[in-house]
Design a protein that fits this description.
- The complex is a heterodimer of chains A (about 110) and B (about 110).
- Chain A contains no helices and eleven strands.
- In chain A, the strands form two sheets. In chain A, strands 2, 4, 5, 9, 10 and 11 form a six-stranded mixed β-sheet that branches. Chain A has a five-stranded antiparallel β-sheet with strand order 1-3-8-7-6, with no helix packed on it.
- In chain A, a hairpin with a 7-residue loop joins strand 9 and strand 10.
- Chain B is mainly beta.
- Chain B is built from no helices and ten strands.
- In chain B, strands 2, 4, 5, 8, 9 and 10 form a six-stranded mixed β-sheet that branches. Chain B has a four-stranded antiparallel β-sheet with strand order 1-3-7-6, with no helix packed on it.
- In chain B, strand 6 and strand 7 form a beta hairpin.
- The termini of chain B are far apart.
- The chains are: A mainly beta (about 110), B mainly beta (about 110).
- Chains A and B meet through strand 4, strand 5 and strand 9 of A and strand 5 and strand 8 of B.
Chain lengths: ~110, ~110
Amino acid sequence: GENVEQHPSTLSVQEGDSAVIKCTYSDSASNYFPWYKQELGKGPQLIIDIRSNVGEKKDQRIAVTLNKTAKHFSLHITETQPEDSAVYFCAASIGGSNYQLIWGAGTKLIIKP
Amino acid sequence: GAGVSQSPSNKVTEKGKDVELRCDPISGHTALYWYRQSLGQGLEFLIYFQGNSAPDKSGLPSDRFSAERTGGSVSTLTIQRTQQEDSAVYLCASRISGFEQFFGPGTRLTVL
């Protein structure tokens, strides 16, 4: 079946440095790739997403890149701050579905002061 | 405005008991999801409701799990004869259009 692999499971970076989280997906028909941030005790919250007709998207310190040929996409956070500490999840749509997502296992990002 | 709310926030039960978890979606959101999140794992899809359409139950792990959505709003997830492996955080999310899902804070279920 379809799956999404996410790496690393834990990432520790110095405040101010950049962080990169990578995901690969198996369903070549996937066309929507969101990233969610989950803070302790809260539900996940969408932070950025990308469609398959776009290679890169940026929103202030956050960017997502997509390589459809290789079936992988990445989240880039620059100038990391303490409030970036959280668990980040990637996901991919199942085929062309607009409602079903397959989720990665999550990456715990730790920002060291 | 108010977000998605879930109750209870924590539930401790004994093996074999039934539990009901409640989700109040954002007003006007026609789509509603239930997910299960085990420690260190991603989100496992359980069930999806969209308006008056038949729900997508393809993610329910066994017939001990069921969910209903009354009046197109509040949803209840019921787990019968709970087992220790049911211990997890159960997340509810709602959506109105497009792709973004809005999540509640979850219910942490512990089965002793």
